[in-house]
Write a structure and sequence with these properties.
Number of domains: 4
Radius of gyration: 26 Å
Number of helices: 15
Helix content: 55-70%
Oligomer: single chain
Largest sheet: none
Distance between the termini: 78 Å
Number of strands: 0
Low-confidence stretches: 1-7
Order of helices and strands: HHHHHHHHHHHHHHH
Mean pLDDT: 84
Strand content: under 5%
């Protein structure tokens, strides 16, 4: 049977046929091949009924077309895990991005392992995933995102990280929090302070290029200080050192870690303080 003939199979009948096959007991030598065939047939249940392979395309192109047609959102967790081996046969970056987003949407702990596997497999390319996926990862599995940040630092792949941070307050604040913890653990080393300076200046430049006010990517509790700082730098008669110092002291007493983070980003606040 040609693959194009699969479009003629009613999905209810295919589902019944799959149930029959799953109840079959085969010899050990046949288990692996049988399992792969069964998985591909089962995946057809999650493609549009009008999916039609193109006989003019190469096998690899048809595989990619088939993978693009899969509706990951309706697939149960168990099959999502098994599906990874099919994706590895021909999925491109966009397909993996959809697969990852669907895993995050399901928010099922059983999928954490395969999520980590795919995330690691993509390497530094994870920083090129859509912002919405970065933000969902922070909310659903923050440890995976922290791993990405630490990897970016160790490999000095900072520019992609800077680009993502300039587009998302959540990503920027998460990175800043991780960097703040590292800064404290490293006892405010000069090398790490230089790195932070590079990072903050990079994010600031991207924000300017994209017409984004850098104040807006900081937590609300820090924005009044940064706004006063900006006004003071433009016109010192409107905002005095006392005004700025008073706000900085309030932050230091109420939120010590955020206070340290802000001073590490803007050392001139320390001079004012």
């Amino acid at each position: 049977m040609e693959i194009s003939n699969f479009r003629k199979i009613n999905k209810d009948r295919l589902s019944a046929f799959l149930e029959h096959l799953e109840n079959k007991k085969l010899s050990d030598n046949s288990d692996e091949i049988f399992g792969k065939c069964l998985m591909i047939l089962k995946t057809l249940l999650y493609t549009p009924s009008n999916f039609i392979p193109d006989n003019k395309l190469s096998t690899q192109s048809n595989i990619k077309k088939f993978l693009y047609s899969i509706n990951f959102d309706v697939i149960e967790p168990d099959h999502m895990i098994k599906l990874k081996s099919i994706l590895d046969q021909g999925a491109d970056f966009d397909i993996y991005a959809r697969y990852i987003e669907s895993i995050l949407n399901k928010n099922n702990k059983a999928l954490n392992s395969v999520l980590m596997t795919v995330w690691t497999q993509l390497g530094s390319n994870v920083l090129k995933l859509p912002i919405i996926i970065q933000e969902k990862t922070i909310k659903v599995n923050p440890l995976i995102f922290e791993k990405t940040i630490l990897s970016a630092i160790s490999l000095w792949e900072i520019n992609d990280l800077i680009d993502v941070c300039s587009k998302s307050p959540l990503v920027f604040q998460t990175c800043s929090s991780i960097f703040n913890e590292l800064l404290i653990k490293l006892n405010f080393s000069n090398n790490f302070m230089e790195f932070l300076n590079y990072f903050v200046n990079g994010v600031s430049s991207r924000c300017i290029n994209n017409n984004i006010d850098i104040v807006d990517i900081y937590p609300n509790k820090c924005r009044s200080i940064l706004t006063l700082r900006d006004i003071k730098n433009k016109n010192s008669t409107l905002v005095t050192d006392y005004d700025l110092n008073d706000e900085v002291k309030k932050l230091a007493l109420a939120y010590p870690k955020q206070f340290i983070c802000l001073l590490s980003h803007f050392p001139d606040l320390y001079l004012s303080y």
